[in-house]
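JOB MANIFEST
job_type = single_chain_structure
chain_count = 1
residues = 56
[input]
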Amino acid sequence: MADDLHTRYLAAAKTWAAHRTGCATCQHDTACETGDPLYERFARIQDAYLTRRRST
């Protein structure tokens, strides 16, 4: 499972970064309608990954 979580974490980070690079709205403090769920997914998986890393 750890490898799967890491893979999902990297994929979410890459997806969010790619969107943010091309979206003028998301480059500022406000996420757009498409970017908001991408960022939320990235943040949720990042939190899970970091929490797992601290507990091992």
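[summary]
The chain has a mean pLDDT of 90.
The helical segments are 2-22, 35-55.
exit_status = 0
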